[in-house]
Records
---
Amino acid sequence: MKRLAEADPARLRAELSPRDLAMLTDTVAVTRIGTDSLAQNARPRTAWADLDIRFLPSTDPAELLGWVRSAIADPSVKVEVVFQGVPGPASPRSGLYGVIRRVLADRFPAAAIVSDVGPALSENRVLRVHGILTYGLTPFRVNYYDQAGVHGLSERIRLDWFDEGVETMKGIVRAWATGP
């Protein structure tokens, strides 16, 4: 995949879903823009933009920040890092991982229970840095269309799937709390 990314990045962008592309490339997205003015017809004194920048483990954050500054190419624009997550190693498989697999397999016998790597940010990284065992888990079924709305204005999930997810989490907690 790296060869395709280097040889024909336009083709890669055209052929991959945004989620898959975000797992193979650094991403920069403008998430908010604003000014100090409350009036539509007044020129603001200051303006700002928030960028959500996510990069691959092989990317040097300082180098990427330098690229952002050079792309802006205006020394009067201040670029400031507001939040930078500290990556932590994934939690090793444990008894809790086994409980999660068992409960999911019991509730959804036909489903393949597998680990997933995704482009999203998780609070797990903060806990893992302190040695706390954590796993990301989405206990809810989500269809393709609803997944596209995650963190959007129309974020939603079917009520019956939500109820099913709550019961799944209750089963995991109960099995972990009462296990050997």
---
Amino acid sequence: MSDATSAKRLPGKVVLIGAGPGAADLITVRGARILAQADVVLYDALVTEDMLALCPQAEKISVGKRSGQRSTAQTVINQQLVECAKRYALVVRLKGGDPMMFGRADEELRALEAEGIDVEVVPGITAALAAAASTRQPLTKRGIARSVAFFTSSTAPHHPEQTTLPDCDTLIQYMGGKEAITTAQKLLAQGRSPDLPIVVVENCSRPNERVLRLTLGGLERGLHGCSGPVLVMIGEAFAPRRN
């Protein structure tokens, strides 16, 4: 077998790219450049058509995962990535937000590394930072909030549900729409004030973005009418600014 033939059979490279919170122009320059060179793109359900327009040359495979809905199993996605790397030179796994923040990146990295496949990770703007910018509400505030915790109530199969929440000045709950009441009840049970400010952002950075401002006591009554991805931001840092 010639060196040239052997080289052609080597696995390609896989790049995990963070698509950002939704708006196509919030992807990083590096992410957009690699996306425009990809041979195949495996993309999440939250990736928009505008984002996919950045890679017209690529074969596109939907591996959408939405909370509470039928979606592609993670083990199947892992296998698809391995198989694509054996067929294509440049494979992109396009993930909403940042791949390393609640993005199931660990499973995918393990599967690719086990096969000796070259992997790169390109960070993206995670929803919490985009929501803070969109609402003009910093996650930290001098003298009020100097610690931030990101959490989600979603758990892996056969893992116990989280019974306590992080003890931080600012709490950011990803995928928090359906868990709003439970989250509020846990925080109230931990001694948090029912007047604690809350900012809820639905469809962050998209044209249909919606922002709700309420209190912890209000959150205990639940969130109604939310159909898109929801981020719940909790803490004194989110009190309205006074001139």
